[in-house]
Amino acid sequence: RDAYDSQEVLDSINKLLTRDIDLDPITSRSLRVICQQLKVRRGMFITVEKNHIFHTAVFQQQPHEIGLAELRNFNKTVTVASDLLGGHSKQILEKYGYEAALRLSTQDGVFGYILLSEKQSGNIFVNQDIRLLSLIASELAVGVQNAMAVEDIRQFNVTLRQKIEEATKELRQANSKLKELDQTKDEFISMASHQLRTPLTTIKGYLSMVLEGDAGPVGKDERQMIQQAFDSSERMVFLIADLLNVSRLQSGKFVIENKPTDLVKLVQTEVNQLKETAGHHQLKLTCSTPDKLPLFNLDETKIRQVVMNFLDNAIYYTPAGGSISVALEATSHTINYTVTDTGLGVPKQEQHHLFSKFYRAGNARKMRPDGTGLGLFMAKKVITAQGGAIIFKSEEGKGSTFGFSFPRGKLEIKNGTAQ
Asked: b/e for 200-239, b at 16 or more Cβ within 10 A?
């Protein structure tokens, strides 16, 4: 009546362990196989993790409470009540109505217990049963350990997902606040820049009138001081223009307004305005432009700011005795503007940051602490927005070349020619 094929039982357990990775099917199905094959009336499969009972499965009975301290009395792989003369293990088995207890353990610890009642035949567990249960206990110990590891990973993933969702929610809230602050900052910059531009324009205008002699003769020393004040006010005007453009760019109000533009005249005008400033800095400023070029469909105001920015940087970052050469050149496909100086140059390791907002190279900050790092950022935005490309090359200690290039085919106005 109690006959069974041990190899068939082991094969069933192994097949189950290779098919299932979740703890619940492993415990419930393996318990059913053991009880049915060994013809045991009922059983309970208990898994433990550290200091608590983790999971319970039952066969032909209702689950009941059994303490972990009681389970730890089963210190052998298989404990059979009929083999015991007395002791805690026998008392616990009799208390809950079980005949045998299996301890599932590996070198990493104990992972569970299986409690089995008497056989349906009323016969005791024999040596064949104990050998089979020992083999089953070893196989199930590894299977339960792996299943619990999978469950730990699953729970970790759930916890991690929750934490990521919470962190993402906090980041969204922080990002929303940052956007509000950034918008407030842009609005303030825009308002302050507009308010500053009017008085600065007035100051610059009156200084220009004094320099031109409208208020009477000006002495050499007075002229030098007034010229410095004029140059400073002009830099302030350019700075305000950069701030306004950055504000417009952030708020989506940065608009390119193209019109027929005479690049030859534009470049020559800006160079002539800065020749005296270059002279004050003891720099040689030269300019080379074609005699005539077609008009180009560009935003003249913004291109003028870029031309002035490259010239202004060359003057202020080139030591006395250096030279600056400005060139406007036309090829069959492009129109190129470059400003080449013998100044500081940009360190190689910093060049990839150069056109970022508010970024300034270390040697430039030392020489001119009052810069903002907006000029080159805006220059790149202006040029690329009109379909052009920035020209840049530099070597620290030897100088730099800044400029831009536009395709003639898209921007050239065929019917107009500038002298």
From this structure: beebbeebeebbeeeeeebeeeeeeebbeebbebbebbeb
